[in-house]
């Protein structure tokens, strides 16, 4: 402008895709490792802000969207509504697919959600390092967007070990952001409380293990977080299910499944926090929490 100040560009970007395609891995690569999960702002204005990337002139606010589901109950409806409003609200969408495999029905559902949105879409074919026929797979994913008119950019990469390709993609995303003041202070990494952030990681890991048995029938929360002098982070969390029968399913024979969920979540937490983590997990029953507006609110589904 006349004063010679740099114009800032900023916007919200959703990373969508079915489970296990590498969304979290890609987000971590976008942000660089060891991103602090907490921010100077304690309030949680918006569920699912996962990370913020800021340069001198640009800011990307990455928001998570819940998975796309066939609605079966109040939570299912809430989730689809969330996906819909999350996508209506963002400035660009990153759709991640797994190039090791051809598309499934779940990919079609995601494609259906994003296809007609008049905003930049980045189709990211992930896991090129492990894909046998990446070009052929990409063609099939591209076909799911047939008829789409708005601008689409394709990238094939490995979110795990392709930092150059990830930063090129990040630049392309930056270039689509509208002129806006920054939404968050420069130093902010995320607007969730650290407890909420950790609870989301626990929930993700639980969902990965449980998705065939009880799709999205679990909620999570973190009740205590203390730090020892040597830096060890002691985190105590709960996995909430709605029936006694589900409790056993989550815990598994001899507690094996709960241990595995805990280990997977602990590893992720340690990578982010750059500290050793002790994670204590308990499974509790809140009957019918998925249909209970008050319980949903209490668990952060507002
Ligand atoms: P999300 O459920 O979509 O968030 O997926 P995650 O990021 O949790 O990744 C799911 C699995 O895929 C994990 O085991 C990752 O290590 C793995 N993964 C992610 N990106 C890549 C990649 O580029 N190459 C390979 N080979 N594996 C990947
Ligand atoms: Mg994830």
Automatic annotation (TrEMBL):
Query: What would be one Pfam family of this protein?
Result: KH_2
Q: Does the keyword NADP apply?
A: no
Compartments where located: Cytoplasm; Cell membrane
List the residue ranges of the region (G2).
Answer: 43-47
Region feature G4, mapped onto this chain: 126-129
Q: What is its main location?
A: cytoplasm
Q: How does it sit in the membrane?
A: Peripheral membrane protein
Ranges where the record places region G1: 17-24
Checking NCBIfam families in the record gives: era (TIGR00436), PRK00089.1 (NF000908), small_GTP (TIGR00231)
Summarize subunit and interaction data from the UniProt record for this chain.
Monomer.
What's this protein's function?
An essential GTPase that binds both GDP and GTP, with rapid nucleotide exchange. Plays a role in 16S rRNA processing and 30S ribosomal subunit biogenesis and possibly also in cell cycle regulation and energy metabolism.
Protein name in UniProt: GTPase Era
Task: Give the source species.
Answer: Deinococcus taklimakanensis
